Amino acid sequence: MKVKDVEVKENIQLTEKVFLLSVSDAELASLTRPGQFFNILVSGQMDPLLRRPVSIGDVRGGTLYFFYKVVGKGTEILSAKKRGESLSLMGPLGRGFSLDKGSNILIGGGIGAAPLVYLLRALLEEKREAVLHAGFPSKEEDYLTPYKDGGLFAEQETLFIYTEDGSRGLKGYPTALLRQSSPQAAVHTCGPLPLMKAAEHICRERGMESWHSLEERMACGAGACLGCVVRTVSGNKLVCKDGPVFPGEELPWQK
Amino acid sequence: MAEMTLKIGGQAFKNPVFTASGTFGYGDEYEEIFDPALLGAVCSKGLTRFPREGNAPPRLMETPAGLLNSVGLQNMGIEPFIREKVPQLVEKGISIIANIAGHSTEEFAEMAYLCNESPGILAVELNVSCPNVKEGGMAFGIRHQSVSEITSACRKALQKPLIVKLSPNVTDITEMAEAALESGADALTVANTLLGMAIDVEKRAPAIHNVFAGLSGPAVKPVALRMVYQVKKAFPHAVILASGGIVSTRDALEFFMAGASGVQIGTGLFRTPDLPLRIIRGLEEFCDENGMRTVSGLTGLAIKEMS
Hints:
With 255 residues, chain A is α/β, with parallel strands linked by helices. In chain A, 17% of the residues lie in helices and 35% in strands. Chain A is built from 5 helices and 16 strands. A 7-stranded antiparallel β-sheet of chain A has the order 4-3-7-1-2-6-5. In chain A, strands 11-10-9-8-12-13-16 form a 7-stranded mixed β-sheet, sandwiched between helices. A two-stranded antiparallel ribbon of chain A has the order 14-15. Chain A starts with a strand and ends in an 8-residue tail after the last strand. Chain A binds chain B through residues 1-3, 41, 46-51, 90, 216-231, 235-236, and chain B through 22-25, 29-30, 32-33, 45, 53-54, 56-62, 64-67, 69, 71, 74, 217-218, 247, 267, 269-271, 273-274.
């Protein structure tokens, strides 16, 4: 964990609400693992007071990429940052995804698909099998297709887009093909709770290993304030330090 | 260089900048960012007689220049803290103040006794002001009588400095300060969080599971500052540790000038994790630039009829 001032390299609008912010920092890039996040200080003013936790979307060379959705005051301010402006990053924070399994299915919904991009890249670099299924309400909200991914998605059949209205890719939810997949594959999800729960339900039925990246309101990011707890089968865990990625079997998710 | 030492009840702390209970974990969570041994002291997470799960999430809500929290004293319990954590912290050279929260006067006294027997604990801070637990906590800190009883009982059980952390959720904080000081407190922490709430309009429900929560951050600073001033003016000999929205050296200076002898940094850490070190350096620089030989010379400078 470091606290470091970095320069904004790019801050591009990908969809109406989703932006891609990149910063070059070889040290932070080398420390970062898929599924971890950074706490970003967006303003020198006291409102918003806290840093914004943003998952690491991708790492290429010495550049870190953050996909973020404008949902409130903090992300609004972040979206106005220009190339060359300074930004304080705290991180990398938390424990990321497991890269151990030979075969992997990644399921993401909305802005939750962001950390799975870097996971996909890392898994492929480790010579693992991995496919990302990403769902959006419609093509207007799909920020992955416009992402210049350095060939990640093009090389092989690694990305499947789903839209609820069928305006791009497959019509429906990104869990659609999970029942037909190999039960030996590990499943990694991030997105709205109903999506993660639906995936977990199928994983339990089929005995598949699963990992879910959770979200909770957060303050310190370092395990000090105990604000971001999630109740697990083995008691309270901190999303910031014990997670954000948790094994499915730890989560008390009933059907 | 200005003398930075702060003495509380015979115990010297290397500087007057502490981290506030509940914002710095058990003491070493931030050690990758700075060495906690450089702090005057670390006030531990609020400790109870037995381990506590704390409140259900959501526990946090950000507000303009503020933070609402309702953690509800989640902690490992005082015995595991003393047995497992204190030796690790002592090994790292960290000065520990144990923040304790009992369900009853007897339990407070029992915990004070356990702290007395643990050489690594330098002082005890009584949490009679937690707004987020159903029994005890703030219910003690808003009654003159219970502040007196708890402080007296702990005083008997403890040969170390005793600090009482007061609740700001009272009509007259000087009454509570008087109760604590008359019952043997060596210092007062002014103050804990202000009781508040937030509502999630979409869900038509409170934003925090426990409904009410404690407000901290720059939003509460003027209130805490007023309380420090009131207490110092009423009790010129009181040693006050100020806590409430400190995010800069200037904020700390305001509290010193209002009557504080030391400051506790809390919510500001979440923005600026090395904030305490910046404030230690900032205070030294201010003293040096203004020809002050000791940081204690700042205390109460702005109090009318005292300076």
